[in-house]
Amino acid sequence: METKNYSSDSGFILLGLSSNPQLQKPLFAIFLIMYLVTVLGNVLIILAIHSDPRLHTPMYFFLSNLSFIDICFTTVIVPKMLVNLLSETKAISFVGCLVQMYFFMACGNTDSYLLASMAIDRLVAICHPFHYNRVMNPRRCLLMLLGSCTISHLHSLLRVLLMSRLSFCASHVIKHFFCDTQPVLKLSCSDTSSSQIVVMTETLAVIATPFLCILFSYLRIIVTVLRIPSAAGKWKAFSTCSSHLTVVALTYGSVIYVYFRPLSMYSVVKDRVATVMYTVVTPMLNPFIYSLRNKDMNRGLKKLRNRIHL
């Protein structure tokens, strides 16, 4: 029997969040609002940091770059999803699918490394305050940012090259709202065992490295803070980490659930919900999390608002 290679002919069909026609417009409205809030919130964070000289510190340098990456991250996925919600075809070309997959992974991994960089910043600030300016100097911060981007893009390139060598002949319907690795691998009629081993091993190394860095940093921070004699001192030290810990929990909780399971355990509905959490919800919440109880950010946002009014 002759098999048809959908990857080179007609591309793929993105099934989306729901196949119910009555839900398409409500979902479009919800995700359009979420996308606009995400872009506006993160742009305000970037502008507030750059407009206030008192926020020109390593922590806020990484936060402004995290906000920029969050905008890119959601832009890779949400606009195409919105178009498909109002479209009858919901098609994406094979090349378009690989491009989306590449930038999705690049932005997602850069997010992880930036969160690790922010954890290192908190570690140095709390555990080695007298050496903070020397250790977290502008040159080192820039190198950490460039390293995060480089590792993430190399990882994405390897994954996309592996995916480009697969054949897709059984079906061309991706049961997801974007081109993610697991849903696309499920469609392949090639032997994906070697690809899965490489993907799992390499992904474990790339994603686990920043996670272990965050874990080690906070273990050191906890040990140091517990040595502070006063309760007020302990609370002040921990309060500088609360926003970062919240974002780490939201991001890694859903990422670990989606990606660190065998392909046989893949669940369409559950994975869609978890993926929405870290691709749409977390980037939207980040500006609120970092500004809600942060006096420095609130001051920066007020200063930006006053400048706009003038």
TrEMBL record:
Role played: Putative odorant or sperm cell receptor.
One Pfam family per UniProt: 7tm_4
Stretches assigned to coiled coil: none
Keyword Transmembrane helix belongs to the record: yes
Alphabetized InterPro entries for the sequence: GPCR_Rhodpsn, GPCR_Rhodpsn_7TM, Olfact_rcpt
Official protein name in the record: Olfactory receptor 1L4-like
CDD domains per UniProt: 7tmA_OR1A-like (cd15235)
Membrane topology term: Multi-pass membrane protein
Transmembrane segments: 27-48, 60-79, 141-158, 204-226, 238-260, 272-292
Intracellular or extracellular location(s): Membrane
